[in-house]
Amino acid sequence: MNMHSARAASGLDNLKTILGISVLAIRWDDAIALLARLVAERRFTKISFLNAHNANIAYTDPVFAEALDDFLILPDGVGVDVAAKLLYGAPFPDNLNGTDFVPAFLQASARPLTVGLLGATRLNAEAASVKLAALAVQHTFVVIHDGYFSAAQEQGIVDRIEKLRPDVLLVAMGVPRQELWIARHIDQRHCTLPIAVGALLDFLSGTVPRAPLWMRQLRLEWLFRLVVEPGRLWRRYVVGNPLFLWRVVRQKLSRRRDPAGGAS
Questions:
Q1: Domain coordinates in residue numbering, the chain
Q2: Which residues contact 68 (CB under 8 A, 6 or more apart)?
Q3: Is a pLDDT exceeding 50 seen at residue 23?
Q4: What pLDDT, on a 0 to 100 scale, did the predictor assign at position 9?
Q5: Residues 6+ apart with CB under 8 A from 85
Q6: Which of 16, 38, 154, 258 has its CA 20 to 30 A from that of 26?
Q7: pTM above 0.90, yes or no
C-alpha cells in the first residue's frame, strides 16, 4: 500500500507537503488507531517519519525522495512543525517522533503481534527487544539481525523475514539506508508494517541517552543530542537546521510567485 491508498484507508486526507514530501497531519491517537487498523487488515504499508534532517537528504537525493513517495510519512520534530506553520499557517496536530510514537503504538495494540527487529548492533537490538517485551508484554519480539551485514548475507536476512512474516518490522539502519533497504527488499510477503525507526533501538537499549523530559517538552531534544554527540551531529543540526528552514522559505516564496503550482 502506498501513501495515497493508506491515506484513503485512514479516512483522512490531510497532507502537508514539506520540500516535496507528503506528510500526514494526524493526531497521536488517530495515528495509533490507523496503524492498528492497517495491521488488523494486513494492509502492507511502509512507514517513515519526516524531520529536518531527512527532508534535507531527500531534497538533494532524488532516489531517496522517490522511495519516500511510497511510504506513509509521519511528522517528527520541531523543524517540520515550523515548516508547516510557515507554509500552511498551522503546525502539525502532534509530534509523532518515532522514538516515542513506535513504543506507544506497540503498547496500545491489544492484539498480540509478532514484531521483528532489524538493525543497530546485536547487543543494542537484543537489549531493545527486552525493553520492548517489558513495555508491551502481549507481543512477541524477534531480533532478526544487526544492521551490519554484507551484501552476501542480505538474501538470507530477507528469507528469514519472509519465513517469520512479522506483523511489524522495525528497521533501524539510519537515514536513508533504512528506507531504501525497505523499498528494495520488503513487500507484503515479508510483513505488514515495515517501519523505519532510525536510532530507536539504540535509545531503547540505553546506550544512547535521551534528553530529560523537560527538554523534550520544550522540543529541544535535538540540542541535547548535539551536546552528547557533537562530532557526529554538528553538521546535521548546526548546518542542517538553518539550511532546511531556508529551503522551506524558498518553497513558500516560489509558491507565492506561482499560486497555480500548489504546495509542491
A1: 3-208
A2: 21, 48, 50, 58, 179
A3: yes
A4: 52
A5: 91
A6: 258
A7: yes
**Cell numbers at 165, concatenated:** 512474516
With a CB cutoff of 8 Å and minimum separation 6, the contacts of 225 are: 211, 233, 237
Going by C-alpha positions, the residue among 9, 55, 4, 64 that lies closest to residue 31 is 9
